[in-house]
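Hi C.,

You asked whether I'd gotten around to modeling the 527-residue construct. I have! Everything is below, sequence then structure, no commentary in between.
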Amino acid sequence: MRFISSMTWVKKGVSKTPIRIKIDENEMKQLFSEMGPNEEESEAESGSENEIKNDGDISTHEDKNNESGNETDNIDKKYNLDNYDNEDDELKLEQLNSLACFPTNVDDAFLTKKDDGEDSDEEDIEIKPNDNLLVCGTVDDDDSSLNIFVYNEEEGDFYIHHDLLLSSVPVCVEWLDFDPTDTDSAVNYLAIGTMNPWIEIWDLDLMDSLEPEFTLGSTKKIKKKKMKAELGKKPKIAGHTDAVLDLSYNYLNRNILASASADKTIVLWNLEEMKQATKIKNHKDRVQAVEFHPVEAFTLLSGSCDSTVALYDCRNPKTNKKIWKLESDIERVMWNKLEPNYFLSSDDEGTINLIDIRNDKPVACIKAHDSSVCGLSLSSKVPGLLISACEDEIVKIWDIKSHNFEKIYEDKLKTGEVTCVKSSPDSAFVFSFAGTKCNEPKVWDIREIKEVRERFYERMNIDLAEEEQKMEQKISKRRERALKFKNLLSLFFLTFKFLNFRARSLRLEIFCSIFCSSSAKSIFMRS
């Protein structure tokens, strides 16, 4: 089964046209040499085990081997199998030299045009300044990968650009622009939390990369038996000891990354030194979600399966904290960036809470869905525009501007169980959805919904009548493209059927010419 487990957007103007990594022969030999000893050792071990196992069976099978050996000798003599491989040395397929391919077109003397097509390749992988990237962690049975899509709102383009192979299931992804080797430069990195206890940081501006740029935490898996010291105390271990479930990058302090884990802890990472800065042990169950405050650099929010949401001052998280006890296991927490004193939380029972950090209880609470709310996202530009989605594929659009939940629209997605919902950082009404039944993320411009236009356009000072005309034109163009594609597809299938019919007729004609009489052939041709 193929599904998208995690997803995030990359702003316009950040990504560059990626560089394709080419591995030479020496690097490939080095990779195989690193893999070789392990395989040889395993083969040697299996061989030794087989020898030990077969020692006791040798005497019992000697008689049978002698009988089978005589039968084999008779077969070899009968079919002359001893000389089977002794072919005539003069029979060499020298004519295949004409089919040989040169490494590059420059080496081929018969080609007048030496262009290798590199320019066209560069055009295919070009990232434009007005392109957004949508990065998805994808799971396909036992394989895991990072799929990078390009979305261009102005041109209506959405396609997969390239992918990267991962060693483990991607649970969460977070974009960051901090380079430990050059703190002043802005980079295009992605932090990935997986089922392993460490964090991988990949460069999105590189194609065909085989390994991450950096790794946070120990890459050695720690067994439970070794987790206890001689006196029964757990040793101090830098980083996590279980899967990383969520990540949050501090855009105000660019060298800080927070990670939440199934080991019930939160780790603050110093990216400049590539090591753990602080470990927060507050929750009694796995920590599902974590997010830095959009305005206050040292304020962090976390949600856990112990049904609590915690607020910390990262300078002293042990004492400077505030905790809200809620009803069920927390799935998502997120700040309202347009109203920084408020945040939202969702749980596995379908409830959404709106909380003011100055109060001890939620300001508003609603039973939004009948199952776990895994998708929760606020518009990056429209005040009060909230989207929620759950495991039963239901998506709902809310207005929380007045600090209560007012449902505007409801629909059912065809994505399977919704795993994540993200809002575009550059477009006010564009959201992406992913689920367990979709191979690609669904990007939805919700301006096509009449109720959304009527409710939120005035809030954004948008002329409703003018935008209605633009939206109608956009929808009509989309229908025209869909109709052209449908006609083209129909023409393709008709052509395919015709060629298939001609091929069958040709095969029958050849059959008749070989095996049938001339009269039968003439009858077939007339028919």
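If it helps when you're writing up: The two ends are 49 Å apart (CA to CA).

Thanks,
B.
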